[in-house]
């Protein structure tokens, strides 16, 4: 364990390896020492040490520099004593590496120079080659060595959410162009999602082979779809990503899978069915109700509203307690926010939430 202990001591003081960590155990529905905690976007703008390190380097360049990736990924583990690191990267990185012209504009998000607007554009989308990911393998190997018993979560963007950026050309609220393409060009839509599934699987496979202990598939914007459209036109591609990951029967190295989207209340059972061990739940559905929708065979992750962290101390404590209590309905609960840390969040509040959850759930 080369990471200095966080404020509450090292995560999982008694875990000897990442495979025995509370994060992995909760994901698989096994008993835990205490409820594991991490935060989506824990590595990011809420941390002054992140802003200092990133100064002068563009986001997508930072993600391809193993030194920066390692240091930025470790920062929140050191500071907060969270139970997992999440790789510092971005969902659009596999596209960037494959040669798609994308920029991440601060305060905006990913912007695509030539959005996909035709069937020919789909077929011209370059494929990611595993050989292009040497920097990623280096960063993950280095991180796994530094993290000791703390697990590293690898991640990728799900085909649908990546398709929304490629088709809209940037962030969007309604995703109307994306849906119009999905309805008007069902075959090309299917080919696009299949391509994105292959690249997501390659990106994840590289992280798992290099030692990541769990993976999360981010389908952030899937909640804009009806359950019927999600089931028919999107779920098969996300399932293909999970299916490509590992083969438990044949003993190929496999790790727990987390599947997350925002505003997915109506999709929760399907998000589970796509092949997840853990279903991410935003703040709109309480965890006990989410468990009823998902069924008993999967764990849950979430679901504190990120905006609560901007409120007063008593409100934060009350809401953390509520999430912990409602999470007891699940076979396993990984405490997290319902979406990413807001940049204006006071990092000390995040540290306090980790301490609170650990204190409330210590066995
Ligand atoms: C939709 C999405 C993206 N990226 C991601 C998603 C899925 C999760 C979600 O729904 O939030 C995933 C992501 N992006 C980033 C991570 C790193 C790991 C972590 O969670 O700490 C992860 C897991 C770093 C990042 N990705 C980004 C930042 C901010 C870059 C900066 O420092 O300016 C970070 C730390 C940029 C980014 N990249 C994207 C957006 C919307 C933005 C924010 C734009 C902004 O508000 O400035 C696309």
TrEMBL record:
Domain of life: Bacteria
Biological or metabolic pathway of the protein: Porphyrin-containing compound metabolism; protoporphyrin-IX biosynthesis; coproporphyrinogen-III from 5-aminolevulinate: step 4/4
GO-annotated biological processes: protoporphyrinogen IX biosynthetic process
Keywords, comma-separated and alphabetical: Cytoplasm, Decarboxylase, Lyase, Porphyrin biosynthesis
Pfam families xrefs: URO-D
Catalytic activity: uroporphyrinogen III + 4 H(+) = coproporphyrinogen III + 4 CO2
Main localisation: cytoplasm
Alphabetized GO MF terms: uroporphyrinogen decarboxylase activity
CDD domains linked to this entry: URO-D
A GO CC term attached to the entry: cytosol
NCBIfam families on file: hemE
Function: Catalyzes the decarboxylation of four acetate groups of uroporphyrinogen-III to yield coproporphyrinogen-III.
Self-association and partners: Homodimer.
Family: Belongs to the uroporphyrinogen decarboxylase family.
Name under which the protein is recorded: Uroporphyrinogen decarboxylase
Organism: Trujillonella endophytica
């Amino acid at each position: 364990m080369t990471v200095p202990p966080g404020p509450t001591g090292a995560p999982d003081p008694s875990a000897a390896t990442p495979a025995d960590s509370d994060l992995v155990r909760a994901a698989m529905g096994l008993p835990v020492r205490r409820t594991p905690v991490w935060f989506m976007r824990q590595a990011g703008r809420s941390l002054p040490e992140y802003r200092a390190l990133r100064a002068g380097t563009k986001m997508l360049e930072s993600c391809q520099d193993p030194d920066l990736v390692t240091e930025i990924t470790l920062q929140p583990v050191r500071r907060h004593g969270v139970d997992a690191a999440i790789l510092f990267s971005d969902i659009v990185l596999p596209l960037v590496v494959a040669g798609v012209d994308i920029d991440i504009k601060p305060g905006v998000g990913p912007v695509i120079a030539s959005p996909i607007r035709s069937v020919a554009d789909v077929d011209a989308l370059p494929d990611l080659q595993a050989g292009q990911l040497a920097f990623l393998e280096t960063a993950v190997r280095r991180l796994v060595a530094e993290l000791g018993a703390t697990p590293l979560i690898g991640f990728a963007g799900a085909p649908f959410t990546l398709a929304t950026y490629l088709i809209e050309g940037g962030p969007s609220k309604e995703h109307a162009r994306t849906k119009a393409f999905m309805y008007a060009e069902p075959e090309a839509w299917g080919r696009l999602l299949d391509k994105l599934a292959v690249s997501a699987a390659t990106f994840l496979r590289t992280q798992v082979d290099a030692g990541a202990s769990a993976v999360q598939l981010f389908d952030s914007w899937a909640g804009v779809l009806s359950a019927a459209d999600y089931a028919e036109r999107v779920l098969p591609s996300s399932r293909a990503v999970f299916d490509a990951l590992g083969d438990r029967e044949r003993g190929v190295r496999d790790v727990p899978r987390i599947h997350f989207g925002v505003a997915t209340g109506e999709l929760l059972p399907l998000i589970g069915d796509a092949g997840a061990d853990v279903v991410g739940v935003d703040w709109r559905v309480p965890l006990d109700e989410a468990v009823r929708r998902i069924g008993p065979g999967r764990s849950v992750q979430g679901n504190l509203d990120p905006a609560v962290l901007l409120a007063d101390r008593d409100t934060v404590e009350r809401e953390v307690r509520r999430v912990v209590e409602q999470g007891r309905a699940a076979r396993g609960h990984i405490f997290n926010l319902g979406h990413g840390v807001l940049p204006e969040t006071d990092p000390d509040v995040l540290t306090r939430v980790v301490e609170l959850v650990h204190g409330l759930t210590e066995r």
